[in-house]
Amino acid sequence: MNIFRLIGDLSHLAAIIILLLKIWKSRSCAGISGKSQILFAIVFTTRYLDLLTSFISLYNTCMKVIYIGCAYATVYLIYMKFRATYDGNHDSFRVEFLVVPVGGLAVLINHDFSFLEILWTFSIYLESVAILPQLFMISKTGEAETITTHYLFCLGLYRALYLFNWIWRFYFEGFFDMIAIVAGVVQTVLYCDFFYLYVTKDGKGYRFSI
Amino acid sequence: GIKVDGHDEL
Predict the structure, then answer these.
(1) What is the ipTM of this complex?
(2) Smallest Cβ distance to A64: which of B2, B6, B10?
(3) Residue A206: left (phi > 0), alpha (psi -120 to 50), or beta?
(4) Of A5, A54, A177, Cβ closest to residue B2
C-alpha cells in the first residue's frame, strides 16, 4: 500500500458515494447513465469473486464489499426506485459493442486461463470503457450537473492515481501487471478531455461537448 | 513479474 493507491481507493469510494447521495437527495437520476452503472456493477461482481476464495486483508475485503454493495444500490435506485426520472432515451449507447469485444479479449489475453482469472481480466478491460455510456450521454445532451462532474472527476482521478501507484510499485517492489497498466492507461485517457473541461470550467455545472 | 494467485488491488 502506498499513498497513491490509498488516495486512489478513497477517491473511487468518494465517487461512488457522491453518485449515490446525489440520486438519493435529489430523488432523481436525471443525467446519469444507468448503463454505465450496470457495467460497473458487472465489473465489481466479476472482479471480486475472489472474496469467496481468498482473504487478503480486512481493508481489502471491506472495500470490495462496500464497492459491490454501492454499485447494486445505485443500479436499484436508477432502475427501480427512481425509474420515472431515468432518462433512457438519452442513454442509448450500445453496451454490447463493449461487452462482447471485451469478453473476447479477456479470453484471448490473460495471465492465466482459469475461470476466476478470466473474469478478473474481463473486469479490468470492461472497467476501462465502462464510463463511455455516461460520457456519450453527456455529449448527447450537451450538459452535466455540477455534482455529476464531481463524480466523474473523482472516478477519473482514482484511475490516474493508480497509474502513479503502478510506477511506484514497479520501482520499489519490482511489481508490474501489464494487463492492469494498459487498461488503466486507456481508462485514464478517456477522462482527459473531461479533466480539461472540469479544471478550466472550475467544476461548475455547464454545457459542454465531448 | 506478476503472480496470479490473488490480486491485492481493488
Answers:
(1) 0.81
(2) B10
(3) beta
(4) A177
